[in-house]
């Protein structure tokens, strides 16, 4: 959540920005089209999405657009058959996009590799053949523990092509985390790399894999495919570990695409919730494909000449939807960057924009605030005149960062599309379009076909200007289909909190014009630099330390990261014998959390306490701790007393 100061600023924000005439004239979706889209979606929700589905190729059309007989287990396009890779790759080989650039990749050292659709197609086919030869078939899971390199995109598509389900574990996660995901998914094949470059360092990823694997169950990860990226010395264990390039050498550049049912799973992606364990969100071939493709075409207004720079790692949902699938489904060219955004200095991203002539720049508020801190002289040194659209996602951008982004990256010339969505939604849900009137700090209106609303805890719509829970009142194509292995949890967490509505877990308000203003999470989930971190997850990690008896974690506002975690810990008395002082113990606990969960979960501070405040029923009063920390008086109770 943003600092409270920003919240106040939101309430008085009244600036509006109108689109330039040229933007309106050239937009894929012009004002009359948008009005018609809202009219159609309003009159016939399913007809709207059916129209979107017809933009793609299907091997068999649907028997119905939506089967809601077993709600909330909605089935989009039942009876339809396709494979997302048919639309993302195969089909381009027969049309003019065949020799168009699909992927531009830049390594941290400035090395560059480019793939046309045809080249990407052939590489994907080789890996698809290799995976088949390793015994992977339809429905099997393939785990990806990959840095941002071209082979990562290849691996996602190759798995999907043969009907396998990719389960991506972001390369910043720990060995323990990887082991758990491997055990959950029972993936027999793991695709990884020797390492990658970030922040001027060579990170040895294979060493983390070697640490994770001894604990996995049964046949899990019996084969590890290793991409040679850094060429560093790594341990290759025979016969388990195989080099990607050796494997592909013998493979044919043609491979059959498995024709899937629309509802067959395409990938799982883990995200934090309010329990100690991340949940595996499941997305499918048909509905996800329609949502990703349609929103990328309309919101990002994609044209044949566009070069889309998505800063998100492919391992997050943003990377999946708008770094890989959305761009390829629409025949666009996408830029993937390996390294740290400020390496070797703060003009790195502007330099990439200039070098390849990026037209769309999709970033995160944390990134914008980082650039802001270094100052406008960095982007000013670069020619950013090719840019025509800016995008933001992951956390509240706020009016101040919005204005900076607009002015110093967009040269007061590019609409800022602040897109609200989630791992679970699979696609952008609330967002301005290039032709929209923009309000800095607002994520704009719900997109056509998205029944978003702000309601109270009974599900009643709240009046404009008043805060409430963000919900979606009708299903949408790219929605998660379930939580893997936890149908009950899916129904409970998302559809039963407010009956009949999808509960997003955010608090928001809507103004008189129908514009949404996101205020932050409504639950015990932190948003650290756009990454969801469950307080329960961090608390579980802390409690796994032998000297910790109890722990509570709260989020505190941070100028750059939006939010950071602070831990309150009740320690076993022996800690005094083991450490020189509280600071030394705190450092150990921070390092411990890092080892358990990975470097993205940063604990800013650790405070030792004798006891933690609890409700009569024993629940930790995190809001009390947070309020104490912020020096706020608790008025009207904590809402957690029961
Ligand atoms: C949570 C979802 C979707 C890709 C990145 C995050 C927050 C997302 C915005 C935005 C304010 C936002 C919400 C949401 N969030 N976009 N434009 N403005 N907040 O995906 O990890 O699933 O997190 O991120 O709190 O619930 P995620």
UniProtKB/TrEMBL annotation:
Acetyl-coenzyme A synthetase N-terminal domain ranges (all copies): 35-88
Coiled-coil features, chain-numbered ranges: none
Molecular function terms from GO: acetate-CoA ligase activity; AMP binding; ATP binding
Pfam families the UniProt entry points to: ACAS_N (PF16177), AMP-binding (PF00501), AMP-binding_C (PF13193)
Keywords, sorted A to Z: Acetylation, ATP-binding, Ligase, Nucleotide-binding
Domain AMP-dependent synthetase/ligase residues, every copy: 98-476
EC number(s) recorded for this UniProt protein: 6.2.1.1
UniProt cross-references to SUPFAM superfamilies, sorted A to Z: Acetyl-CoA synthetase-like
Tagged with keyword Ubl conjugation: no
AMP-binding enzyme C-terminal domain residues: 537-619
Signal peptide bounds: none
GO biological process: acetyl-CoA biosynthetic process from acetate
One GO term describing the cellular component: cytosol
Sequence similarity: Belongs to the ATP-dependent AMP-binding enzyme family.
Protein name per the record: Acetate--CoA ligase
